[in-house]
Amino acid sequence: MDAENKDNYYLKNKKRIMRNFDAMLIVAKQVLSENFGEQKYNEMVASTRNEFEALLPQIPYIGGNNRLTEPLINASALLTILRTIENEGLEYRKIGRIIYELFEAFYKVMPQTEDIFSDEYLNMEKERAKNSKLKKYPGGWVSDFIEGDGKTFTFGVDYTECGVYKFYKSQEAERFMPIVCIADYAQARSYGYGLTRTQTIGNGADICDFRYLKNGSTPRAWPPDKLPEFKK
After folding, report:
1. Rounded distance between C-alpha atoms, residue 48 and residue 106, angstroms
2. What's the predicted TM-score (pTM) here?
3. Distance CA 214, CA 150 (A)
4. Distances (CA, A) of 119 to 123, 208, 219
5. Does residue 39 fall inside a structural domain?
6. Does any domain span residue 147?
7. pLDDT tens-digit profile of 113-147?
8. Within 13 Å and on the Cβ side, how many CA atoms surround 210?
9. Cys bridge to 153: 43, 87, 131, 211, which one at CB 3.0-4.6 A?
10. pLDDT tens-digit profile of 150-159?
11. Is the same domain home to 99 and 25?
């Protein structure tokens, strides 16, 4: 285990991480209050915050200041929300609907920080795929960069290992992965590019085959029944 690993990156950055988590819960207020009432929302905030704080030391270290650490932190935060909603006795599809509405709310206020079609980004993605084969951080991702044809897709990424899936599995929570995966569609719709995918590790496949199209369109992913990847 890396010496910096649970020295602990997440505890060292706890104030920032919890501040971001609190902001996430504020964005979630409208959706959760509409579904559970404001009093229950306040109770959910308290329980999810405590659970997330306790979960921080369990998140695997994957290098700290890199592009995939924040998505892993966000997915870990989402896990506490999923568990809290599940504890209310809702069936799986109702949980999925609420979570997808949360995704849409988050990406409306979350600014796009990088142009994923820029040469800089594409070169970075190629280098990341190359380095991922070294598997320096077991809890991270392993990927292949796929050159696009410029028509059906601009570029693609095939993930053969998923950091979020590994962490959810370690938490005996992989049942939530088909819901978690469709966050990517909400993000693509919000940021105005095309995303297609036929399979995901979260749905039991061997890979996640992302295909991105500049200026393309992305379908709303809820209900998810028409998505090829969705098998729940």
Report:
1. 17
2. 0.94
3. 9
4. 6, 23, 26
5. yes
6. yes
7. 899 999 999 999 999 999 999 999 999 999 999 99
8. 21
9. 211
10. 999 999 999 9
11. yes
Q: Count up the domains in the chain and report the number.
A: 2
Residue in 145, 202, 154 with CA at minimum distance from that of residue 176: 202
- Do both 147 and 78 map to the same domain? no
SS (H, E, C) 62-127: CCCCCCCHHHHHHHHHHHHHHHHHHCCCCCHHHHHHHHHHHHHHHHHHCCCCCCCCCHHHHHHHHH
Specify whether the CB–CB gap between 107 and 198 falls below 8 A. Answer: no
- DSSP 3-state of 230: coil
How many CA atoms, within 13 angstroms, populate the side-chain half-sphere of residue 171? 29
Q: Kindly state whether residue 227 falls inside one of the protein's structural domains.
A: no
The domain of 18 spans: 5-109
Domain match, 98 and 59 both: yes
Q: Do 102 and 127 sit in the same domain of this protein?
A: no
